[in-house]
Design a protein that fits this description.
Elements: H1 9-16, H2 19-28, H3 34-43, E1 50-54, H4 60-67, E2 72-77, H5 80-89, E3 94-97, E4 110-116, H6 124-137, E5 138-146, E6 153-154, E7 165-166, H7 169-176, E8 181-188, E9 197-203
Parallel strand pairs: 1-2, 1-4, 2-3, 4-5
Antiparallel strand pairs: 5-9, 6-7, 8-9
Helix pairs in contact: 3-4
């Protein structure tokens, strides 16, 4: 993938760690009970004891997975404001500071690693590094819930030109990791507790 202007990863992280990111957290710190049933459908037939969300913000998805019976849930979040807010409300959650580019976990430590509305905020030049880390830390399942588009397109997001990209995330993952098996794909909407987006579920072959 390429584009005329490749944003700097450091600048992108600085944006999300600034007031811009805090405002995002304030706007989106909302419980969405419909997501519990959505996650039950996504997890149907998947044996998941330990799960990781990369870019968990204040941890709502972690709480939904717990409600679905996942025994151990972890989150990685680059924004200190979101981590502190999550820990005040839900001190039992395992949320650690970090980024998608350097996950502080050993290989294959999770049964499932996932993102929800995170890969869209990673520029083309850095997307592969984030996917490699997701792939590295999961033993079996990789799930992404993102805004998809047949072609990669940059979207101006709240006045910023290097903050959101739509793309076919499933195709990107399949091309980068040919040994993964496509397990499921589906569209989500308001009734599911999401904006209009697409989920992809991939399975790793036995090691």
């Amino acid at each position: 993938m390429s584009e005329p202007h490749a944003p700097d990863q450091t600048a992108q992280l600085a944006l999300w760690r600034s007031e811009f990111g805090a405002s995002y957290t304030d706007r989106n710190d909302l419980e969405k009970p419909a997501r519990v049933e959505t996650w039950r459908r996504i997890l149907d037939g998947l044996a998941v004891g330990r799960a990781l969300e990369v870019g968990c913000n204040v941890g709502w998805n972690l709480r939904y997975l717990s409600a679905c019976g996942v025994d151990e849930v972890w989150g990685v979040e680059p924004q200190r404001y979101a981590i502190e807010r999550a820990r005040r409300r839900s001190p039992e959650l395992n949320i650690v500071p970090g980024t998608a580019f350097d996950l502080p976990f050993r290989d294959a430590w999770f049964d499932l690693a996932f993102t929800s509305g995170v890969l869209i905020h990673i520029g083309p030049a850095d997307l592969g590094r984030a996917l490699d880390e997701l792939h590295r830390v999961t033993r079996r399942w990789l799930v992404v819930i993102e805004y998809d588009s047949p072609d990669e397109v940059a979207i101006t997001y709240r006045g910023h030109h290097d903050a959101l990209w739509k793309r076919d995330h499933g195709a990107v993952i399949a091309a980068r990791f040919p040994t993964l098996r496509r397990h499921a794909r589906g569209l989500l909407g308001d009734d599911d507790g999401y904006d209009t987006c697409t989920f992809h579920v991939f399975e790793k072959p036995p090691s």
